[in-house]
Each structure stands twice: as C-alpha cells, then as structure tokens.
Amino acid sequence: MCKPVLTRIPITWAPGFHCCEEAVPSLAAPLFLFHLRYADLGSGLARLERTRRQPWVSEDVGRHQRLENMDWKNMLLAMAGLPRTESTLDNRDERLTHWRQQVEDSAQTRLHDLYRLDLHLSGTELWRLPDRFVARV
C-alpha cells in the first residue's frame, strides 16, 4: 500500500492515513511499510477490538477495520494458505514492480476521491522477507 511518510506542510488525511488531499500517491521512494497486524492473529484481534470502541467510528468508512472476530480469523487463515515464494523486494524484483504499477495505475482514476488508490488490491502469494528486513538478535 501507499501511505505518505514525510511532509513539510500540514495535510488533510483520509481515514486510515492511506491518502491525503495534498499529495498524489507516489511509490518512488524505496520505503516499506509492513502491516504486521496481518501477521499475528492475537494482535490483529486486539486491534479490531480497540478500533470498534473508538468514539469516532463511522458507518460510512472503515468497515474493514471492524470485522467480526471469526471473519478476521478466516481472512488470516485464507492468507496463510497462499503459495509461498522468495522475493528480493528491490528494483530488480519483477513481482514488486508489477504490484507497485497496479497501485500507481489505480490512482490515475481516483485523483478526486477520498481514497486516491485502490485499497482492495490483494496479493496472490506470500513473499518471504529478504534477510535485510530481519532483525539480528
């Protein structure tokens, strides 16, 4: 996904901080954001519980953030069943180039939408993180 990371000016965020009014999504910087709540069932369920209790919850946006526990668990189980593959996650990685292009293409038709990119793009494989992302303990 694409989330603005640095800014020099005040910005107006869309819910979920995926987009802002002042910028068009750009994937030019070699930065990575990993949504780790999809990697652990317990922490994902705890996050859902916290999100459901937020006083600013709106029926108009963010329904995917308030799934029922069993729906969340089934989604994670489905993800865990995807085929696994190796990845370099660098500019030589054709799979990454493909997905980045899909995100950028999705933004071309959403320049005036609240979410300026397609938040429903989903992978078809689980990519092993390259060693450079793994902490050495």
- Strand content of the residues, in percent? under 5%
Number of domains: 2
State the helical fraction: 25-40%
H/E series, N to C?
Answer: HHEHE
Rg estimate, integer Å: 16 Å
Number of E strands: 2
Structural class: mainly alpha
Number of helices: 3
**What's the shape?**
globular
| Main beta sheet strand tally, sense and closure | 2 strands, parallel
> Which oligomerization state do the chains in this entry correspond to?
single chain
What distance separates the N and C termini? 28 Å
Describe the structure.
The structure is a single chain. The chain is mostly helical. It has two domains: 35-81, no CATH class; 85-137, no CATH class. Helix content is 28%, strand content 3%. It is built from three helices and two strands; from the N terminus they run H-H-E-H-E. Helix 1 runs antiparallel to helix 2 (69-80). The longest helix has 15 residues, at 94-108. It is globular and about 40 Å long.
Write the layout of secondary structure elements.
Layout: H1 41-52, H2 69-80, E1 84-85, H3 94-108, E2 126-127
Parallel strand pairs: 1-2
Index terms:
two-stranded parallel ribbon; single chain; 137 residues; mainly alpha; 28% helix
Give a quick rundown of the structure.
The protein is mainly α.
